[in-house]
Every structure is written in structure tokens, then in C-alpha cells.
Design a protein that fits this description.
The structure is a homodimer.
Chain A (H helix, E strand, L loop, with lengths): L2 H25 L8 H11 L6 H12 L11 H20 L8 E2 L2 E2 L1 H5 L1 H20 L4 H11 L4 H10 L7 H26 L4 H28 L2 H4 L5 H4 L5 H4 L2 H16 L9 H11 L3
Antiparallel strand pairs in A: 1-2
């Protein structure tokens, strides 16, 4: 990317992340609202930061498809919060002792380490509902259905099950792509599609952006696997090397690390391929950012 | 009730329960759909039977409000399945070792006893999503919002937290009413309201049925508490006496058993009070049935 693109893109990411934090602050029940203990646990996990890539993709897609900025506050904004919130619910449940049994997330103790298992189960459940409540607030049944499909048994939850069942088994490259496409890819793809749907995108644009979402979604998880091997625990805010310790099916585990890097780069190129060369889209910047991220 | 009412009501209940089972069979992914292990666990819990009182209330309210029977298959039917499914998700998570730690539900091992904790967490999550997917399938954003409010932190989940936090504490009658109204009452009230909303009920009717739903919802849980003390384990399909063993806040625990029976009966009378005497409604039969149930 050109230096100008890089600067504009970085500013866009920074500003959008601030917006995401404001939206989450606004839409999550306050710590003083009953039941306080539950709302404190929910906020603890959601407000712990993170890359906020799903809401960023949703609004970038909304804008790319010509979504009305005057309607953003009642359409794509609640959707952005819903996407980050549903992602956080999945992390909380994924971290539970009976699942991945993780102690650290985003540089802090995981929800169940901080508040106990019962509260973590309930906080995840409560975030799950709030996500649907917010998505319904957009007034778009299509967006609600899209969210449900993305996180349901043919999407994210199906991927989580396949991920658990692949532990300790000799998975193939095809198996890992299948797991990653659902576990992480489906919600990333869904985020792009929801932004486009709320903007009233035509079929052809929706199809192109769906392909984009699939490619960056899979690339995102391959790079997550690479960072779990090569990344810095401090930058990542979670323990590295944990995939291998748990005998998880990872992409670099079935091809070489170098091949994994090449395949991620190829996926990013394919994602960029859905745009015309002159198309100066923030979605192009985000694809490159995902390809180069270090946390 | 007159003998004729009782026979008609009993037939209505039996037929509607059959319909509910058919709808659940139709809407839940089959055991042969990937991920099979997850779908098997989901079906195990949903198809274990139960009183199906929430979908029964939804369709009875739909019919009471003059809902079009020709549109039932695309409106109230998916809503009925959604209500039973969301209820089942809450039972699965409630039964987890970190929550109520129950071994028996509807006469069978609980989901985590049968399939393990990780699968039970995921099966609950997956049923939670499917409920929203089905409710969105009605095309009514209002119904989706109603479901989210009923099971969210100001409804069912708030009640679950309060219930956990009240264990071993000297709760007052007011505390218990507060817990029961949210933990059980909110979804029962929501079921009645969703049926009415899908039928296009006017404000006044919706208000009356909301009051009805609140009364029968609270009565339902008070009778649950009574049955936990006096009921027969075989008829109930779950262990009796478990509330007291866990030092749960129960209604008969804060007033006498006799007073609890009287208060439940009074609530049923109040629920019946929203109807005119000549109003020959199945909702009246269901209120009486809830007041007299033995499982």
C-alpha cells in the first residue's frame, strides 16, 4: 500500500476502534444496573480491548456499499456492538475449564478466573442475548438471520465442536480449513455481510464482499495460529504455544510455518482481487492489515 | 371448570403438545447433519419431553387474539419451537456442575452427564442461537425483541443470577417473588406476549394478556417449589427435595406450604380475572391447569 493509504487506513482503524468502545459503553448495561455482578463480569470481558476487527469490517462494508451515514446510528452502529459482543461471548465460553481452560485473555485473567465458572457461563449467555437484542434494534430481520447463521451450528459453534473433536487427532489441511472457516471465518464473513445488508447492497456487491469476508476470515485465523507459535505473549495478551500444548489442529501444524505464511498472503491477495485496482477502499487496507498483524 | 371445559382443554393440551413435538422435530437439525455430536446432544435434551407450557401459551394467546390460522405455520409455529428451545438451553446450562449440578432431568441423565460438560455448554449455546433464528423466521422484529427481553439480564438471566446469589441467604418473600418473576415468569409472560404480538393484538388486549402471563408465570414457579417438596420423583422426572438441599430461596421456604398453595391459587384467580366470565378461552383452562398440575 502507498504511505498515504497506510496513514489514512491507520487513522480509520484508530477512529473506528474508539467508536466501537463508545458504542459498547453505550449499549452494555451499566455496572450499577441490576444484576450488578453479572453486568460487571460482562463489561470486564467486553471492555478489555481487542482488535475490534468484526465491527470495523461491518462499518467499512456499510460505507463501501454506500450506506447512509445519517442512518448509521440506528443501523450499523448497534450491529457493530452486537458483533463484538457475540465474539466476546464465544471467547468467554471457549476459555472455560471444560473447553480450552485458558487463564489469560487480552492480558487479564479470563472471565471464569476472575468471577468464577457459573458467572462466566451466565455472562457469556447474557452477551449472546444482548447481541441479538442489538441486532434486532437495527430493524433488519435479514441482519438478525445473518448473525444467527454466522454463530450457529453451521458456523461458529460448528467450528468450535470440530475444533474440540480434532484435538489430538491427525487433522489434514482440509480439516483445518474446514474448522477455521467456521470457527472464526463465519463471523468475520457475517460481519462484512451484515454491514453490506444494512446498506442495502445489491446481490452482485454482496457476493463479492462475501468472497472477501471468507478470504480474510480464513487468513485471520491462519495468522492467529502463526502468532500462537511465533508471537510475543505480551503483545498478544494471551499465552503463546497453547495450541500445540493442547494438541489443537492448527494450520502451521499441517503445513510448514513458511507455507502457512504464503497461504495467508495468497488469501489476502484473493480478497483484494474482488476490488478493482482503482477502487480506493478501506476494506483493501483492512485486508492488508490482517495479513500483516502482529497481535 | 365444567366437565366439558376440562375435556376440551385436555384435548387441546394433548393435541398442541403433539404439534410442538412435530415442530421441534421439523426445526431442529437432524442427528445426521454435521456437527452430528452437537445435534445429537441438542435433540437429546429438547426431545426429552416436558410440559411444553411456553409454546402452548403462545399459540393459545395467538388464537385468543384472532391470529390467522392460515399464517400460523410461518409465524406462531416457529415461535413456539423457539420458546421451547430457549427454555431447554436454560435448563442445560442451569444443570451444569458449576451451576445447580443436577444429574437428572425429565427422567434422564442431564445433558452434561450424558455428553460431557463441553458439549453441554455448546449444546445450550446452539439452542440459544436456533431460538433466535426461528424467532427471526416469523418476520417480526417485535417478536425477536420480546424474546431477547424475556431471556436477558432483566428477565430470565437476571433471575438465574439472583437465584444463585440467594443460595444460603435468608431471602424474604419479596426477594423470592423477584427471583421467580424473572427466572421463570419472564419467559412465560414473553410466550403469551409473543403469541399476541404475532396475532397483531391491540394494546389493551396485549396489556391484559401481559398481566395474565405474569400471574401464571409466578404461580407456575411457586407450584414448582411446592412440587419439589411434596412431589413424586417419578412423576416429576427429577430429584425432589433438591431446592432445600441446595439452600435455594423458595416460596414455601419463606411462607408456609399452606400459604404458598393459597398464594398460587390467588394468582391463578387473578390471571382468570383478566377475562370476562363469558369468555370461553383456552387460556383460562391453561391457568387452571397450571394451578392444579402435579408434575
Amino acid at each position: 500500500m502507498t504511505p498515504v493509504e497506510a496513514v489514512n487506513g491507520r487513522t480509520y482503524l484508530d477512529n473506528t476502534r474508539k467508536l466501537v468502545d463508545e458504542l459498547l459503553e453505550k449499549y452494555l448495561p451499566s455496572e450499577k444496573t441490576e444484576p450488578q455482578s453479572l453486568h460487571i463480569a460482562m463489561r470486564y470481558s467486553v471492555m478489555a480491548g481487542g482488535k475490534r476487527i468484526r465491527p470495523v469490517l461491518a462499518i467499512a462494508a456499510y460505507e463501501y456499499c454506500g450506506g447512509d451515514s445519517r442512518k448509521a446510528a440506528t443501523t450499523v452502529h448497534p450491529a457493530m456492538a452486537a458483533l463484538e459482543i457475540v465474539h466476546t461471548y464465544s471467547l468467554i465460553h471457549d476459555d472455560l475449564p471444560c473447553m480450552d481452560d485458558d487463564d489469560l485473555r487480552r492480558g487479564r485473567p479470563t472471565c471464569h478466573r476472575k468471577f468464577g465458572e457459573a458467572m462466566a457461563v451466565l455472562a457469556g449467555d447474557a452477551l449472546h442475548v444482548i447481541a441479538f437484542r442489538l441486532m434486532a434494534g437495527t430493524g433488519s430481520i435479514d441482519a438478525v438471520i445473518e448473525l444467527a447463521e454466522a454463530v450457529g451450528t453451521s458456523g461458529m459453534l460448528g467450528g468450535q465442536v470440530a475444533d474440540l473433536e480434532a484435538e489430538g487427532i491427525n487433522a489434514s489441511r482440509k480439516d483445518v480449513i474446514n474448522i477455521h472457516s467456521r470457527k472464526t471465518g463465519a463471523l468475520i464473513r457475517g460481519s462484512v455481510r451484515i454491514g453490506a445488508l444494512l446498506a442495502g447492497a445489491d446481490e452482485a456487491t454482496l457476493d463479492r464482499l462475501t468472497a472477501y469476508g471468507e478470504k480474510v476470515g480464513l487468513a485471520f485465523q491462519i495468522i492467529d495460529d502463526i502468532l500462537d507459535i511465533k508471537g510475543n505473549q505480551e503483545t498478544l495478551g494471551k499465552k503463546t504455544g497453547s495450541d500445540s500444548k493442547k494438541h489443537k489442529a492448527t494450520y502451521p501444524g499441517v503445513v510448514s510455518l513458511q507455507q502457512a505464511r504464503q497461504d495467508a498472503a495468497a488469501l489476502i491477495d484473493e480478497a483484494l482481487g474482488v476490488f478493482e485496482d482503482y477502487d480506493d477502499s478501506i476494506l483493501k487496507y483492512i485486508a492488508r492489515y490482517i495479513g500483516q498483524r502482529e497481535n
